[in-house]
Amino acid sequence: MLDKNKSDNMSCKNKKFFDFVEKHLNDFVEIDSYLSRSKLYGIVSEYDDLSLTLSRTDMDEKNPHYNNQKVLYVPLNSIKSIKIL
After folding, report:
1. How many Å is the maximal CA-CA distance in the chain?
2. pLDDT over 70 for what percent of the chain?
3. Which of 47, 68, 75, 78 can bridge 58 by disulfide, Cβ–Cβ 3.0-4.6 Å?
4. Rounded-to-integer distance, Cα 68 and Cα 60, Å
5. C-alpha distances in angstroms, 14 versus 11, 21, 36, 60, 64?
6. Which among 44, 32, 38, 50 is positioned nearest to 72, based on CA atoms?
7. Which of 76, 84, 83 is nearest to 13 (CA)?
8. Cα Rg for the chain, rounded, in angstroms?
9. Is 8 helix (H, G, I), strand (E, B) or coil?
10. Is residue 6 scored above 50 in pLDDT?
11. Is the pLDDT of residue 48 over 70?
């Protein structure tokens, strides 16, 4: 009985997280993750049950041909915190 309540609580937390991510899709965020010593920055472009996708484009004003797009796949279980900037 206790395990069932514990799993229901976790699914509620996950639902809140997914609602938060869905609401802030295409927003610029800062992510603190267990996988990196520095914070990760980018636009939330996609998410699924396992990961969050951050997109980031480095712009070169002098030569637009060298614009560089980076995509980071961050496992959900590695996210400590996420903040909208």
Report:
1. 64
2. 74
3. 68
4. 8
5. 5, 10, 22, 38, 40
6. 44
7. 76
8. 16
9. helix
10. no
11. yes
Beta-carbon contacts of 48 under 8 Å, excluding residues fewer than 6 positions away, are: none
Tell me how far apart the alpha carbons of residues 16 and 56 are, in angstroms, rounded to a whole number.
25
Residues 71 and 53 sit within 8 Å (Cβ to Cβ): yes
Collapsing DSSP states into helix, strand and coil, what is residue 59?
Answer: coil
Q: How far apart are CA 49 and CA 30, in angstroms?
A: 20
Q: Supply angle C-alpha 33, 51, 82, rounded to 5.
A: 40
Q: Number of C-alpha atoms within 13 angstroms, CB side, residue 22?
A: 8
Instruction: Name 28's bridge partners.
Output: 43
| pTM assigned to the model | 0.71
Distances from the Cα of 44 to the Cαs of 8, 52, 76, 79, in angstroms? Answer: 27, 7, 13, 13
Kindly report, residue by residue over 71-80, the tens digit of the pLDDT.
Answer: 999 998 899 9
- Location of structure tokens 């560089």: 68
